[in-house]
Protein 1
Amino acid sequence: MPAKIYVGNLSSDIDDDNLKNKFSKYGEITEALVAKDRDSHRSRGYGYVTYAESDDADAAIHAMDQSEWNGHKMFINASVMPSVFITNLSQRVNDETLRERFSEYGQITESGVVRDRETGLSRGFGFVTYNNQNDANAAVKATNGTEFDSEEISVSIVNIRGEPSYGIRCL
C-alpha cells in the first residue's frame, strides 16, 4: 500500500528531483514534491515523498529523521495533515478558484490542482489541506456531490497513509 511522508526543514535549493534522488534508496517513489509558494514559486522548506510501499516509507523515516542535508537537520514523519481529495474538476478550475471554493470551511495550509508536467493541463483532480480534521470533515460533508464550475465533484478525506478514502468517511 502506498504511503506518503513529510520532509521538513529542507534547504531552499532542494527541488523535486533532489528530493526524489535523496530518498530513492529506501524504495520505489511514485511522487516527490517540494512545497512552493504560490506567488514566488520558491521552496517553502518542506516537501512530501510518496512510496509505492508503506514499509519503504517507514524505512526512510527511521533512517533519515533528524539527519542533516545541505546544512539543515530534516524532520521526517508520516504525512497526517488533514486533507481532502477532489475529483472531476473542470479544466477551468485553477489553484486560486479551488482555494476560494474550499476556504469557507476552515484555514487552508496548502491547496492545488494537479497538472500534467509536460502539458501543464489540469489532470482533473486536486487537494486541499486544512489546519485541523474538523475543517476537512466539514468540507467533505458540504461539497461532496455538489456542482463546481458546471461539474459534479467528488470530495473525500485523504486517509493517514496519504490516499483518498473514497466516500464520506469523516475521522
Protein 2
Amino acid sequence: MVQWVAPDLSWKQYWQQFPVILFFPPVFISYLMFGFTVYIIINLAFPTILKFPYKSMSPRITSPEDFVEDDPTVERPRLKGASANDFKIIYEPEEITKTVVLAGSFNPPHNGHFSMIRFLAQEHKHVKVVVGFNPSKTYTVSPQTRHRIVETMCKDFDNVQVVLCDGLIWKYASRNKATVLYRGIRTWRKDGLGELFLLWQNLFFPPILGRIEPIPTKFLEGDPQFNHISSTVVREKCAFGGEGGEGLVGLVPKCVQRSIYDAYTYTEYTEDKKNK
C-alpha cells in the first residue's frame, strides 16, 4: 500500500512556491471558475434596483442662473421646446458619452414605461429602447406595430432610439457599446422572480458565449402612481373600456392612446369571438 507523505516544507518555502502553484493551469482555471461563480451568486442575491424617486446620476443645477448657455460641457435639454427652467440637468463629460439599453416587450407600452424612458433620456447621452421579440413566435400584435407605437411615444426625446431585436439583448447591447442594461419592473416583489433568469443570462452568457465582460443589469422600479398599470390591464381596457380608447385615459400617454386602442381592440374582440 502506497502512503502519501506531505512534503517537508517550511512556511517560507511554501510561500515561495505559492505563485507557481497558483498559476499552474488547472489550479488557475479553478480559481477563475470559483471567482466567476461567486460573482454571479452575489449579483443574483443582491441585484441593483433603482427605486422611485430615482436619484440623478449627474449634478443638478439649483437655479436657472447656473445654466451656462455657452459651456460646451453642458448638454442641451433633450426635450423639444424645453428651456433651462424646465430641464435643469447638466452632465459631466464622461457621463454624456454613455449609451444605455432599456429592453422589454412593450405589449403594449404604458405610462409606467414612459416615465422610465423619460428618466433615462434625462440621465444619458443615448438611450436604446429595444422591443424584443422571438421570430419563431406568432404575435397577436406584430413587433413592427409595437415598435411604431413606442417610437411615437418617444418622439419628443431626441436622444432616444427605438429598435427591434430578435436575438439576445446582451449581444445587441455589446454591439452598440452600451454601458448598462436596464429592465423596467413594477416592484421587485411583484416582478423580481421572473427577472432572475434574464439577469442570470446577462451575467453568464457574455463571458461564456461572447468572451466579453458582462454588461451590468439594473432594474428600474416604476413610479408608485403607475404600479397598478400593466400591459395586461391595458389590453383588457382596449377590449372592454369604451369607444375611441376612452378607457385608456391615465394608463397610456395621450399621443399613443388611439394607436394602442386601434391595434389591440380588434385583436382582443377577434380572440373573444373565436373562444365563443
